[in-house]
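To whoever is on call:

I kicked off a structure prediction for a single chain this morning and the downstream step that reads the tokens threw a length-mismatch warning. I double-checked the sequence; it's 570 residues and nothing unusual in it as far as I can see. Pasting both halves so you can look.
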Amino acid sequence: MIIAWACAAGPASAITDVDVSGLNATLAENVRAFLSIAEEDEGDEQAPSERLVRRLHSEAPDEIREALRPFGYYAPRIRARLERGEDGWSARYRIRPGPPTIVRKIDIEVDGPGGEEPAVRNALAGIDLREGARLEHSAYESAKNTLYDAVYGAGYLDARWRRSQLRIVPALASAEIILKLRTGRKYYFGEVNIEQDVLNPEFVQRFVNFEPEDPFDTNKLLDLQLALTDSGYFDNVELRVDKEEAVNQRVPVTVVTKPTRPRRYSVGAGYGTDTGPRLSLGVEFRRINRRGHSFRADLQLSTIKNAFSTQYLIPIKNVATDNIAIAGTLQQEEIGDADTEQLILGVSRNEFWRGFQRRLYFNYQREHFDFGPGTGREENLLYPGITLARKRADDPLFARKGYSVNLDVHGGDGNLLSSTSFARTLAEARAVFPLTQRSRLLVHSEAGAVLVDDFVALPPSQRFFTGGDRTVRGYNYQDIGPQSGRGANVGGRYLLAAGVEADYLFFGDFGGAVFFDAGDAFNGTPDPEKAVGVGLRYRSLVGMIRLDFAHPLDDPDNSFRFHLSIGPDL
């Protein structure tokens, strides 16, 4: 039913107001998206003609009906009113959506051998359609696509719908869903041909994560494409699968590639309150030889750390994720109150293991350090170690739900080229939890310990310090730690730090945060330094930009400290 009023004709005027009332926020937003008169209101600066305004107004009821149907409302009552005032046209639409359409019957059937596939059974179990529920077209389309994708993805490339119907009786506000899918025959992988001429064919074939005669699986094809793309060897990877070329249901796969340039140069600049201004330069030789070896060199410059590092990578085993790395680093770094110069030479095996990125390494480290005039020392360390890292996030740059964990354990023997015997472990964890649609809770923690025969002979890089942008805000970078008799921060044997933060995006990508941090690096009993603060947030293309103002609760000489950091939260 439509009831409409319109004012008398007159000269052209702008559309100044389009009001939609009587609906919840979701329905009203969709209605406005469908209304042509609302687009005219938000768009052209030139005033529309009276004829155009009246035509758009007359089309509005049909557009409103179309906007409400996906949510199951097929019999709305619409009161439409168009007026022209001194400032321009005003269009008002008062809507009663009417009774929602209820799903009275659901008939879903998978006919053929594909119905017994685990992926298909899981898809059926996960379909969000219920008898007695309000009809939503999006749920129907999602169920239809999910079921077909599961059958096709399991290798049933002849899958066809026998019936796919959504029957609606508006007079009864009822709906019936019928989905009947015939799977047809199962297909299998045939030969895989990767078209490229920059690497040995036998090396590139090691990226293929399936064998001929394996059941056809679209997920494995996607994994292959991602592995080749992420390898750095290829700029573009295209998969061609032609069912018509299958012989005895064996489908050949052709991979067409475009190689990357053999060298890649990088330049970066930034600023953080921990590091000050920083500059990075790098070069990567992506294909040293046809066996896929690569080499990179990097130079990093900042106010607290200057480093030159090189790394030679040799792919092994699963070439998409595993490699042997031979690395060397020369660096100068301020650690606590120490000035250090380090030479680190090492070899590592990097691989994916039980859901973790595992790194097994063996390092030689020579470190010269001093905590002031007359305190210089040079120590040597030779140590094996292991690092386990894992990250899960719903978004790599702006996670609303996810976590990251990192564990490192290493140690050396004083009788085997090390200045002292030691064993060191450090565990780090971060997590993000959604609170509301625009707010999150973030937590972080660190715990570490080093057991050492002669602490004085242990270089600062192996001791513990805390404080700074990512640990305990309100304090300088690595400013928290035990002090020597001369008042120098020399670092501790143990580390405990944690923090909690809540943020909220209050306007688009802009938001704010409140936080509490606490932590200590110590030798005996911890006495954590604590800080509270507020911050501004901006969600950018490179991750969150954080501007924090932190008040150290245990340092009366400092009222607050400013922190700026950029990057992902995990």
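Update from on-call: the warning came from a stale cache, not from the record. Cleared it. Sanity check on the structure: Residues 50-68 form the longest helix (19 residues).
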